[in-house]
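Question: what's this shape?

___
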Amino acid sequence: MSQEHASEKDLIEEGLEDFAELDEIEALRAERDDFRDRFMRALADAENARKRGERDRREAEQYGGSKLARDMLPVYDNLKRALDAVGDEQREQVSAFFEGVELTMRELVNVLGRHGVTTVSPKVGDQFDPQQHQAMFEAPVPGTKAGQIIQVMTEGFMIHDRLLRPAQVGVSSNTQ
């Protein structure tokens, strides 16, 4: 083989080696980009999990007592009924007893309030709000407009910004 052929052959082999190195470099770059993408996705997933955990912790803190509060609402209702059922004359006869019931009711309201529970107390004549009220019946009552509250059976309750129990009301069905 002539020296010319040998040098051409060496040049070709060197060129092929350069192409092989370029292919290897490209493969390494692609692998690096893939690892970078996977790392960024894992980082984003970790951040999302942290945010979700923080949100769940806040919700548990604010709304964790919902079940207990909901279970206490019948106690509130019964105390309110007891206080409403007694006339002034009866109240005077057993004033110490009713003062105790009123104090118990006040303390229950205070405890619920410390935990973010507030009452939804619609009045007769207010407009029905399906977000806070539950219509127990409809009746045509003269002098009212459709959708006005005509009777309040039980108060509703919110815990922070969530409805714990809707107020139970009667609603006018007049079509005036």
